[in-house]
Amino acid sequence: MAENEIRVLLIEDNPGDAKLVSMMLAQAKGAAFQLETRDRLSAGLERLAQGGLDAVLLDLSLPDSHGFETFDRVHAAVPLLPIVLLSSLDDETIALRAVELGAQDYLIKGRVDDHSLSRALRFAVQRQKKQASERHKEQPVEGAKFLVLVGAKGGVGTTTLALNMAACIAWAKRSVIAVELRPSYGTFSHQLAVAPELNLSALLTLDSNRINEMEIGSRLVKFPFGMQVLFGPQTVKESGEIEPAKADALLNGLAHMADFVVVDLPGAFPEASRAAIRHAHFGGLVVDNEPGSIAAGKAALEQLCSAGVSRSSLKAIVVNRSAPDTGLRVNDIGTQLDCKVFGVVTPAAELCLRSQRAGTPFVLSEPNGLASVAIYEMVYKLLSQEAARATA
Fold first, then answer.
1. What is the pTM assigned to this prediction?
2. How many CB atoms lie within 10 A of CB 139?
3. Which domains are delineated in the chain?
4. Fewer Cβ close by (within 10 Å): the C or N end of the chain?
5. Residues 193-222: pLDDT tens digits?
6. Of 99, 118, 120, nearest to 23 (Cα)?
7. Are 250 and 273 contacting, i.e. CB atoms less than 8 angstroms apart?
């Protein structure tokens, strides 16, 4: 695909009209177009969910939808994607209403040629980009607060903590996205009992300059309790190293999409992890209270600091797995790591099993459990600190 090619989805049930549009875009000057077609709204919505498009060309009258409802359903599915309507004279009033509510333009069938069609699509894409840029300017400069969690070693419970902290933030009525920034298989899906159709790997097939809010948004899964999730790869085929430029583009896009972004990182530190760490407002190092984990934690802290993270922003989160007489004391852990301990979480094996069966983080399904209370306390502390900084 050419670098400046505009990818258009045409949703049109009339084969003759679809063929005409294809011919006009092939003949158009001033831009190159890649056209896909669907003849039903349902099929169009399925294709839109896969992302990788720059604009929609939409017939308002389809076999499974008619009039304003057609636009409304497409706009609700992809609110950041420019939509150009194809309408008949009878639909012109509806088309004007749709423009008032978010469509970029409308064209009357039988009165459009290759020049006007190309011009409408090019201008729609340009206007949408300009509007996105203006939205960014209107938002607070700092954007989302990034909470980055890193395990000192595998199996300490980093992923469980990330999901449950994100769920707590959602419970507090703050918008939050949990991201599994991992090059290989992610276990968010296992813990939430879902099989996501799209995940991080679908984004990483795009060039870095095409990883934007619209593309990211089409890969997010929203849960009834308010949290959105970007799942990690789900198969060996989808796994692979994450290019730093793509990780940066992803994180820059996420910064404008929520109040908080909770990032689950692998214990190793590939370049993509370093990109996430550089965005961190809070870096949580998850450790067990046993000597091997503390030794791994020391090495991880050095790597975090070498990646540019301020040591003052790094805190230890201790998963207290050892028996009281055998584990290290919390104060000793902080001293050995030269890092403040932000919180201590008790093991929650049974809570985890029950929450996985329910597909709901245990802080929501069993809020009175010891681990749930500890996580709520940490999140409350984080939110209080952010509120204090905002009013200082």
1. 0.70
2. 11
3. 6-137 (3.40.50.2300), 145-391 (3.40.50.300)
4. C
5. 888 888 898 888 888 888 888 888 888 988
6. 118
7. no
